[in-house]
Fold these 3 entries.
Entry 1:
Amino acid sequence: MHFNTVCITLLAEYQNNTKGEKVKITDGIYGTFSIGEPVIIDLINSPAMQRLKDISQLGIPDRYYHLKGFSRYDHSIGVFLLLRSHKASIAEQIAGLIHDISHTPFSHVIDWVINGKGGEELHQDDRHAEFLHNSEIPGILASYGISIDVILENDFGLLEREIPDICADRIDYALREFSNDDAHYCLNHLTVRNGSFAFDTMRSARLFAIRFLERQERNWGSYEATSRYKNFAEMFRYAVESNILSIEELLNGKETAIIEKLESAEDWRIRLALFKMTAKSLDGHPIRETPEIKKFRHVDPLFVLHRKLVRLSDADPGFKELLEAARERNKKGVRTAIIF
C-alpha cells in the first residue's frame, strides 16, 4: 500500500467518569494513555471539543475527497498526547488539546469561501480567542483555578513554532498520513532540546521532512486537493447566495448537516457537482486558466549532531535542493478542475 493512502486513525474510548476516575485513550500512533486529571477529562467531554468530531481535518469529507481523512478531534487529541508523552506542562497540554477548537466546518475551506482563494488560511487563528471566550472552556478552566488568558497568552514552544520548525501541531497531522512504519520511526527518534522538538539523527529528520514535503505535493497542495477546495468554496458561495445555506451555518453549523442539506437540495448544479466529486480522480474535467496557489506547508527540522542542533538544509544540500524546487513549483500554483 502506498504511504499516502494510509491514515492512522485515532481510536479513543471514553468511559463514563466521575471525579477521581481515569480515562483510557488508545491512539494508533502514540499508544495507550491513562488520563486522571479532571480538567483534561472535562475539556475532552465539553461540547466545544466534541463538535470537532464532525469537522474534517483535510477540509473535505471523505465521500468527496480523494483520500481517507480524519477529524479535527482526532488531531487535537493526538497533539495533546504527543505533548504529554514529552512531559509538556499541564498548561501546554491544555493549549494543545484546544488549539483547533475554533475551526469551522470544513476546516480551511472556509478561508476559500471568505477570500475567494487559498493563501495563508488564517480564519481559524483570527477567531480563536473570541471563540474560546464565548465557549464553556473558560468556565471549565476557572473551576480548576486556571485562567483562559494563561492558555491564550503563553508562548508554548512545543505546541506551535513558525515554519519551517517542527512542532506538535505539524508533527501530528503529518504522522497521521504517513505509513505506520514511517510514523513510528519518526516518533521514536523525536526528542526535545532547548524547549523545542528536534530529531536525534539526521536520517530521521530527513525522513520526516521528505515525507512532509510529499504530503504537500501529493495531498495538501495537489491538483486534487486544490480543485476540491476551489469547487467546494464556489458551491458554498452559490448556496449562500441562493438561500440554501446561511453564513451562520457555514461558520458554526454541523458539517454533516450542511452536507445533508446540499445533497437534498433541489438544485441541479449542486447535486451534479457533488456527484462528480465522489470520484477519486478529477482528471478529464475542463481546467481553469488562472492557477490557484495553496499554502506551502513544509518543514526544515533541527536534529542533534555532536550535541548541537543543526538545521537539516544546512547539513543536507540534497534536501535543500528538493525543498527549494518544491517551493518554486508551489509559486506557480495549480490550475484547478472546473466542477462547479
Entry 2:
Amino acid sequence: MNVTIHPSKLTGVIQANASKSSMQRACAAALVAKGKSVIKNPGNSNDDKAAMDIVQKLGAVIHLSGEELIIESAGVKPVSNEINCGESGLSIRMFTPLVALSEKEMTVNGSGSLVTRPMNFFDEILPQLSVQVKSNEGKLPLSIQGPIVPENIEIDGSLSSQFLTGMLLAYAASNASDVSIKVNNLKSKPYIDLTLDVMKQFGLKVPVNKNFEEFYFEAASHQSATTTHHYTVEGDWSGAAFLLVAGAVAGEITVKGLDVYSPQADKAVLQALMDCGCKISIQSEQIEIGPAPLKAFHFNATECPDLFPPLVALAAYCNGKTVIEGTTRLTHKESNRAITLQEEFAKLGVQIDLQDDLMIIHGSKGLTGATVHSRHDHRIAMACAVAALKANADVVIEEAEAINKSYPDFYDHLKLLGANVSL
C-alpha cells in the first residue's frame, strides 16, 4: 500500500494509542500468573495480536468484552505444537523462555525480519537450565523442550533487554528460589523497570534488583492464592513520540493518555523536545506542543533506540547539526535503522552522517517531496510521514502498511489532527 502525505498544518486533540510494550507483557504475565486477568485498554497492533495468539496456543482462554481483554489461565499448558511470533522481537524473546516451562516439545517461529535476527542467546542459556534447544544456526525456527529448572546464570544484556524480560517471567513462573540472574552490559534498563512493574501488578514473584546487574529470587515464600488480576495498558510513548514531533514541526496539538511517570524508556522524547526549543507544556493529563524556531540538540538514545526515527524527523527541521548517540543499537531492528534512515531521508534532501556510535543529522535546509520506502519497518514509515508534513511537496511512502506492526491507527490519527493524507 502506498500512502501520500501532503504538506499540512496540524491542530487538535488526540488520544495516544495503547503501548505494545505494556500490552504484550500483560499477556505474558496473565498467562503465567494463573487465574483470571482483566486487561483494560488492550492494544490492537499486529504485535499485540501475535501475543494474544501465543497465550492461547500456550493454553490460556481469552475473549474481548467491550474495552477489556479477559484472559483465563492455568499456567503454560500448550494446546499446539508451535507458536508464531509474527515480526515481534519482544514476543520471540519473552515467550520462548515461557515455552520452556512445559515438558512438551514446541516449535517457536516468526516471520518477516524476525527470521534473520540472532537467537544465539537461547542456544547458550537455556541448556544451562535443563532445556533442550535446537535452532537454525542461531536463527528461527527454534525447537524447545523443558521444563526449565532455574539455576544461577550470567547473561549478556547488550543486544536487548527483552531476553532478560523473558527469563525473569520464566523464573517467577517456575517459583525460582534462592537463585539469581546476573547481567552484563544491560541496555534499555527502563524496559526492565516496566517488566518488574507488570510482574508486581499480576502478583508474580518479583526479584530483588541489584542495580540492574543481578536479579535475585529470594527463598520460596507463601504465594498468594489465585485471584483476579486487573491491569490497564498504558498509553504508548513510542507511538506518541511521532505525534509529539509532528506537533513540534507542523502545528499546535494536544496529546492525551500518556503517563508522565511511566517507566517506558521512550518517555525520554520529552527531553529532546525541550532541548530543541519547541513550544511544550507537560501536564499530568495531557501534553500540549507546537512549533517554534527549532535548534539542533544532542541526545543519547542508547537506552531508548526506538526514538531514533522520530528524532531524525525532528532534527531534520532543527537549525544546525543534531547528534544522537547509540547507533549500535539499531542493527538488529526491523531494518538496519541507521542505514535505512540515512538512505530514506537522503531522498527527502536530509544529510545524515554515521560516525562510530553517532548519528549526525544536518537540519533546517528544507525537505523536498519524494517517494520513500518503509523498508517494511513501522517506525521508518512513521518517521517519513511526520517529516513529510512540512516538505515542499508531496511525499509518497511505499509499503506504508508497515505501521500495522505497532500503530495501525497512525495515519487515521494524523488525519484527525488535520493532516492531508491519501491512502
Entry 3:
Amino acid sequence: MRAIPIILLCGVLAAPTLAQRGALTVPQNIGQLSQRAGSIVRGQVVSVRVEPHPQLANLMTVVVSLRVTQSFRGNPGALLTFRQFIWDIRDKYDAAGYRKGQDLLLLLNPVSSYGLTSPVGMDQGRFEISRDVHGTLFAVNGVGNLGLFSKIAAPQISSKISAASSSLVVRHRSGPVPLLQLEEIIQSSSGAAR
C-alpha cells in the first residue's frame, strides 16, 4: 500500500517525458529563443515530405516548404524550404507534426553545414497560429507556451513594447497568446526589424 503513492508519483513525473517526441530540450523563454534564431518567419506550409538526407542516406529528414507572409529575421524570399532531422521514428509517420495548410511562426536555428535546421528549442520555437471566433489570431508552441515569458525582465523591454504586450509578459503562464503581441515581443527581444 505504501508503494502505490510512489508509483503514482513516478508515473506523473514520467508523463512529460513521454510527450517529448524526439529530443529533450532546455526550457527557453521567448527572448532566448529569438536571440538564438538564425531566421524568424511566419507563413503557411505548402508542402511536406519525409525523405532520406541527400548526402547521409541513413538519416531521415522532413522537408518543409513554407509560403512566407512575414519575415522578422533573415531573407527567405517568398518560399522558404528547410530540411529538419527526424529525431523520433514516430515523426517519420506524421512528418514531425508539419501539415500542408498549417499557419506557423517559426524561429529557426541557423542552417548547419549539412543543410539541416529546426526550430530553436524544438517545439518551443514552432508556433501554430489559429483564429478565434472573433477573428483574432493566436499563437501557441508545442509546449503550450509554458514558460514563454519566464525570467524576462519586463522593465527592460517595457519601453520598447506596448502596454498590452508588457502586461502579457508579466501575467502569462501558459496557453495561447495574441499573435500581434507575440510578434512585437519577438521584435523587441531579438532586435529583429519589421
